[in-house]
Every structure is written in structure tokens, then in C-alpha cells.
Specification:
This is 2-C-methyl-D-erythritol 4-phosphate cytidylyltransferase. The protein is of the alpha/beta class. The chain has a single domain, classed as Spore Coat Polysaccharide Biosynthesis Protein SpsA, Chain A (Alpha-Beta Complex). The chain contains seven helices and twelve strands. Strands 1, 4, 5, 6, 7, 10, 11 and 12 form an eight-stranded mixed sheet that branches. Strands 2-3 form a two-stranded antiparallel ribbon. The longest helix has 14 residues. The model has no long low-confidence stretch (mean pLDDT about 95). The structure holds cytidine-5'-triphosphate and ligand LQXTBERG.
Amino acid sequence: MKKYVILVAGGNGTRMNSVVPKQFLLLNGKPVLYYAMNTFLQQFPDCKIILVLPEEHIAAGQEIIDAFFDYSRIDIVTGGRTRFHSVQNGLAMVQDENSVIFVHDAVRPLVSGALLQRCLDAVLEFGSAIPVVDCKDSLRRLVDDGNEAVDRSLIKLVQTPQAFHGKILLPAFKIDYKDKFTDEANVVEAFGLKVMLVEGDAANIKITQPADLIFAAAMLQTAE
Ligand SMILES: Nc1ccn([C@@H]2O[C@H](COP(=O)(O)OP(=O)(O)OP(=O)(O)O)[C@@H](O)[C@H]2O)c(=O)n1
Ligand SMILES: C[C@](O)(CO)[C@H](O)COP(=O)(O)O
């Protein structure tokens, strides 16, 4: 079955506080978005990447592709107002419903081939795959008169790639936008379907703040 990867890199990285959006920052000498793209292309020699970029950074993205990759396997599309709209723009490039579609944050450079394979296997069996990890910290919920403890064994932290059969994700994303749509699982649930959780990977962090970049660099150096 055809595999599509919507690699979302259309954000501005406000929390990173850098002039250059975090997906273009150098991580051990290569742009952050290089790593996840390379892992997908290596793991799935038959996949097509749809790289979603801010309009003003499309030329920079094209330069990265020219420098490192086979351009025939990668299309570029312009990002949207929110992550949801960026994913929608990417999905507009997918013609084939009979496919597996991965949506991955370009700012999760440490994603492993093993996790990609787990997601693919789950999609082929169940139709969806949402990687999750346990919560290591204690949790508190804010309530009207203060705060209260939350049982962390009932909570999972959600990662990407979030992967689906095309017959699920393509119709689900025709839904009207809601603020709670921070990931694909939320959209598919709002469409009326349940999603399948798979084991994520603690190393598969999202680069959100400056310290995350230092952690990712150290992890990559250890892996070399
Ligand atoms: N309109 C948007 C917003 C986000 N993203 C992408 O979604 C992923 C996860 O989002 P996040 O970490 O929140 O990135 P930013 O929105 O860039 O960061 P911030 O919220 O700090 O501004 C990133 O790869 C980001 O580029 C996107 O493609 N289009
Ligand atoms: C999709 C996601 O990476 C799952 O953890 C996350 O929701 C995206 O980050 P954001 O800060 O909500 O944009």
C-alpha cells in the first residue's frame, strides 16, 4: 500500500525564542527537519514525503532537499494558520485513499525506524496508530477551589507520527476546525472513530524550548 508522510514544519516556533524557526536550526550540523525526513526515507523506500513549510521559508526548505535528498520523493506545500490547517494542506496532495498516511512533527528529529515500523504494523491491523509514553511526573489538576492529584497511571503522553489508513484520515480532516484539534487523534475522534495507541519512545521528544535542542544534540552524539 502506498505510504505518505505529512511532515509538518509550518510553525513559527514561538516558544523557542529564535529568529529562525526551530525546524531550520542546526542540530549537530544539519537542520532539525533533516533528521525525521531522513529516517522516514530510509525506513520506507516507497514512501512519499509531503513537507509543509511556512510560505516565507519555502526556498530554505528547497535548499535542504537539494543538499541532502532525492527531490522526486518530496513535495512541498505551504502551511496554514494552525497545525490542523497545515495538515489539511498536506492531505490535499494525497489522491489515493487506499494508503497509509503518517503525520509527523518535523521538530521530533529523534524518531526511530522501529517506532515508524510499529505505527505501520498497527495501521495495517487496526487502521490507526498513536504513539504514547507513560508520564514520569506526578500530576495535579486545577479545580474551582484549588487543585487535586490525578492518577498518572490513567494518563499517557502523546507523540507523533500519528498514522492512519487513508480511508479514515482523509474524510476526518474535512471537519470544521476546533481549538482542541492539537493532533490527528483528536480530529479522528471528533469524526466519530476510536484510535489505537501504540508504544511510543521516550527519546522521541518534540523540540519546543531551547533546552530540548541541547538534549537532542546529546542524544544524537551518543547514537553515533
Ligand atoms: N501552523 C502550524 C503550526 C505548527 N506546525 C508544525 O507542527 C509541529 C508541532 O508544533 P509546535 O511544536 O507547537 O511548533 P510551533 O507552532 O512552531 O511552535 P510554537 O507553538 O512554540 O509557536 C511543528 O513541527 C510545527 O512546525 C505547522 O506545521 N503549522
Ligand atoms: C501533535 C503533538 O506533537 C502531540 O504531542 C502536539 O500536540 C503538537 O504540539 P503543539 O504544541 O500542540 O502544537
